[in-house]
Design a protein that fits this description.
Strand content of chain B: 25-35%
Strand content of chain A: 5-15%
CATH architecture of the largest domain in chain A: Orthogonal Bundle
Largest sheet of chain A: 2 strands, antiparallel
Distance between the termini of chain B: 57 Å
Helix content of chain B: 10-25%
Helix content of chain A: 25-40%
CATH architecture of the largest domain in chain B: Alpha-Beta Complex
Strand order of the largest sheet of chain A: 2-3
Largest interface: A-B, 113 and 137 residues
Strand order of the largest sheet of chain B: 4-3-12-7-8
Radius of gyration of chain B: 28 Å
CATH superfamily of the largest domain in chain A: Cytochrome c-like domain
Oligomer: heterodimer
Radius of gyration of chain A: 27 Å
Shape of chain A: globular
Number of strands of chain A: 7
Order of helices and strands of chain A: HEHEHHHHHHEHEEEEHHHHH
CATH superfamily of the largest domain in chain B: Oxidoreductase, molybdopterin-binding domain
Number of helices of chain B: 9
Structural class of chain B: alpha+beta
Number of domains of chain B: 3
Distance between the termini of chain A: 60 Å
CATH class of the largest domain in chain B: Alpha Beta
Shape of chain B: globular
Number of strands of chain B: 23
Largest sheet of chain B: 5 strands, mixed
Chain lengths: 353, 445
């Protein structure tokens, strides 16, 4: 990676300019204690592009598929192509040509959805990230072998490796050489260092400047309310209050005080248990109304109105399960705090609107 | 004569017209028939003294008829042990942009810039960007580790960090994706959504340089730092050692109190001038290294797509930018006459030296008045007098920073970077004021 060498050299130059006062105040050396080997091992799990930090292990595409379907597919789709919870990780759009050149050609095409695999130049990144942060709702629960298997499966979905491929610490470098966008990054810009050279400059003209002043883009009337009623988002007694964008006709007028009062009251009535749900991580899979990964809370509340359902729901939330709403399993959620759990269960069974 | 009842206000009877003796009597013996008539007498007398004077045509009833709050006993101290904004400010809150993200834990909430003053963002209105939700961390159990190219890898407790020499500095914090929705076309109605991934606070903490010195970092080989969070995402970002040694802080304080949980309680990295994602929240570890880590948010996101299909990687510095916050999109000028056009200017490379304002879409510019103090890598508030006479206007602001860099127009920026890079959109913003006083977000061409 010659660009690395170049950039590193550049950074070293900027380093040399720093004047450095190397005196510690007296007594400061007593603050902080040496980290133990075990502590460093527990936290220092990062893997660099040169694979420093990579633990030994291996996993194949088939094992990866199995783990994927159990632990990842609910959010990312069976083939990593879902757009429900996050942007697609893989779509079948990487070509042999991309793999040969290390540049994903379709990145210049605005009509093509940019997937993770189209962008990521470094295999280490996928390994590092899945190990530290996935599954999203239970990060750091995967073993190194499972991560090797999952990375192998993702690469297989992107046609980077074959069905019988086994990824291990010994063939990561070789596999890196097949990463479809491995040559797609540029460090040739001025935004890394404070003293970097800008690529764009503005104009200093102050009078009769030759600039186009035709409006080429503005929000269409139907989109004015897409962010909610603007009248409720601006200080309503100030010199320039918000436009009332919530009328049926979409007509905008300055807000009337009664409209504002009514709207504020509506907001207050709808706020109740969301904090607990957000902290519990439930909203990643459940929304208030309508199916997401799991059923909508509206449907759950209709089905389980009544205190007699409390014990069942409590158990289901803590231990997970499948088959009531479909084949998608709800993972166990053991980390939800007792208070939050009580609040959630009380709300789910309360039956009121 | 407009009475309180006509104004629709319910009013508690004033308590202080009862004589001290009477109150003591009542609290001792309760109300008996004799005392009840005494009480009634007192009420009648109080009511008589409260009769409002007659209202003349030009009189403002809010002045002439003394309002409730002027004629009643207020609430006690610590009614709110932690103070809250007035209920009349309920509109001024952080908000999400619907449809921008698919979940609420990997998401953004925007700061309501349209109604804030000065150069500091109230902590409770600081924008949020989380990748895996936010967490409540017990400060007694939170540790900071420093390892990598150091003589001695170290662990610090929060107690130790709070004992160390600290500094307090005011800096802006802008997400690299701020204004990212507007690359292709106008997509959002107000400055909250177009520029609200921007906040500024006074941060208090320990200089990173001091901690690295304490650990004895390898001056010859060290080149970069890895910062890592303690949350589920354990967010990692590579930090330029140049920034780290210059003015970066390991911060625990924000605007005089501890950091808010959404902003990284109890510890976050502060890297002035650099995009927000590098200011790792819930900071648990700094690793000194000699080559960048290419973490997830350095290869799949926070990379700027250029028209030729390459991504610029490690784009970090937030270049000079300014925006008019009032009047701004989604507002309405109710009257003609004087307006204070006001906004914010900032630069990740130094100070905002000069701000100019145009009301005709950039044909003519005049200097704005900058409010002090003007600090490096902080927000600078600007003002410009304007008399609006009902004409159509195109409001713009343009900053020049201390390096001489001038904020580009949208056309100038797009000519180099195209419209698909998502990050680092620092183009001049245009608000169109219509003859009807309505202000709309527009782009010119």
């Amino acid at each position: 990676m010659s660009s690395w060498v170049r950039a590193t050299a550049l950074w070293l130059c900027t380093m040399a300019m720093i004047s450095w006062a190397a005196t510690l105040p007296e007594g400061l050396a007593e603050l902080g204690r040496p980290a133990t080997g075990g502590e460093i091992a527990a936290w220092d799990i990062d893997v660099r592009p040169d694979f420093v930090g990579l633990p030994p292990g291996s996993g194949d595409v088939w094992a990866g598929e199995e783990i994927w379907l159990a632990q990842c597919a609910s959010c990312h789709g069976d083939f990593g192509d879902s757009n429900e919870i996050f942007a697609p990780l893989v779509l079948g759009n990487i070509t042999d040509e991309d793999i040969a050149t290390g540049r994903v050609a379709s990145l210049t095409d605005p009509a093509v959805t940019r997937t993770t695999l189209m962008k990521v130049p470094t295999l280490s990144t996928l390994w590092d990230y899945i190990y530290r942060a996935m599954p999203w709702n239970a990060p750091k629960s995967l073993s190194p072998d499972e991560v090797y298997a999952l990375v192998a499966y993702l690469l297989n979905l992107g046609y980077v490796v074959d069905d019988d491929f086994v990824l291990s610490d010994t063939n990561m470098a070789e596999t890196q050489a097949r990463m479809p966008n491995r040559n797609g990054m540029s460090l040739d810009h001025g935004l890394w260092s404070v003293s970097g050279v800008p690529d764009v400059t503005g104009s200093s003209c102050t009078a009769d400047c030759d600039v186009a002043v035709t409006v080429t883009s503005s929000l269409p009337a139907y989109a004015m309310n897409a962010h909610g009623n603007l009248a409720e988002q601006v200080r309503d007694w100030g010199p320039s209050p918000g436009l009332w964008t919530a009328t049926e006709t979409g007509k905008e007028t300055a807000a009337e005080p009664e409209q504002l009062a009514a709207a504020n009251a509506a907001v207050e009535a709808a706020v109740a248990p969301e904090a607990a749900l957000n902290v519990g991580g439930c909203s990643g899979c459940h929304q208030m109304a309508g199916q997401l990964v799991g059923p909508g809370f509206d449907a759950i509340r209709t089905k389980y109105a009544g205190k007699e359902h409390a014990a069942y729901l409590r158990d289901k939330i803590v231990n997970g399960g499948a088959g009531v709403w479909g084949s998608m399993p709800m993972p166990p959620m053991p980390t939800v705090g007792e208070d939050a759990l009580q609040q959630i269960v009380a709300w789910l069974t309360s039956g009121e609107e | 004569m407009a009475s309180d009842a006509e104004q629709g206000q319910l009013q508690a009877a004033p308590e202080s017209f009862l004589s001290k003796d009477l109150v003591e009597n009542i609290s001792r013996d309760g109300i008996n028939p004799g005392r009840r008539s005494l009480l009634q007498g007192a009420f009648t007398a109080a009511a008589a003294s409260m009769v409002a004077p007659s209202l003349m045509a030009d009189d403002d009833p809010d002045i002439v008829n003394l309002p409730t709050w002027t004629r009643s006993l207020g609430k006690p101290v610590v009614a709110n042990p932690y103070g809250q904004p007035s209920p009349y400010e309920a509109n001024i809150v952080r908000r999400q942009s619907p449809g921008l993200t698919r979940t609420d834990q990997s998401s953004v909430s925007f700061t309501p810039l349209q109604n804030l003053f000065g150069m500091i963002t109230p902590s409770g209105l600081h924008f949020e960007r989380h990748h895996q939700g936010w967490v409540d961390i017990d400060p007694r159990r939170h540790k900071l580790m420093i390892n990598g190219l150091v003589d001695t890898p170290l662990v610090f407790t929060m107690e130790e960090l709070l004992r160390m020499p600290s500094v307090s500095r005011i800096h802006f914090l802008e997400c690299g994706a701020n204004t990212g929705l507007e690359w292709g076309n106008v997509a959002v109605p107000t400055v909250q959504y177009s520029h609200g991934m921007l906040s500024a606070s006074e941060f208090t903490g320990v200089p990173v340089s001091l901690l690295l010195e304490r650990a004895g970092f390898d001056r010859k080989r060290a080149n970069v730092l890895l910062a890592e969070g303690a949350d589920g995402s354990s967010m990692t970002r590579t930090i330029n050692l140049e920034n780290a040694l210059d003015d970066a802080l390991v911060a625990y304080g924000q605007n005089g109190e501890m950091l808010r949980p959404e902003n990284g309680y109890p510890l976050r990295l502060v890297v002035p001038g650099v995009q927000g994602v590098s200011w790792v929240k819930w900071l648990r570890r700094l690793e000194v290294g000699d080559t960048p880590w290419a973490t997830k948010d350095e290869v799949a996101h926070y990379v700027d797509l250029m028209p030729d299909g390459t991504h610029r990687q490690y784009t970090s510095i937030q270049e000079a930018k300014s925006v008019i916050t009032a009047p701004s999109g989604g507002q309405k000028l109710l009257k003609q006459g004087y307006y204070d056009i006001t906004g914010l200017a900032w630069s990740g490379r130094g100070t905002a030296e000069k701000v100019e304002v145009s009301v005709d879409g950039g044909r003519n510019w005049r200097p704005a008045r900058l409010e002090g103090p003007i600090l490096p890598k902080a927000l600078t508030r600007f003002h410009c007098d304007w008399v609006w006479q009902g004409e159509e206007a195109l409001l713009q602001s343009r900053v020049t920073d201390s390096t001489g860099y001038i904020q580009p127009s949208r056309a100038q920026l797009v000519a180099v970077r195209g419209t698909r890079s998502i990050y680092h959109n620092n183009a001049i913003q245009t608000w169109r004021v219509g003859a009807d006083g309505e202000v709309h977000n527009v782009q010119l061409g």
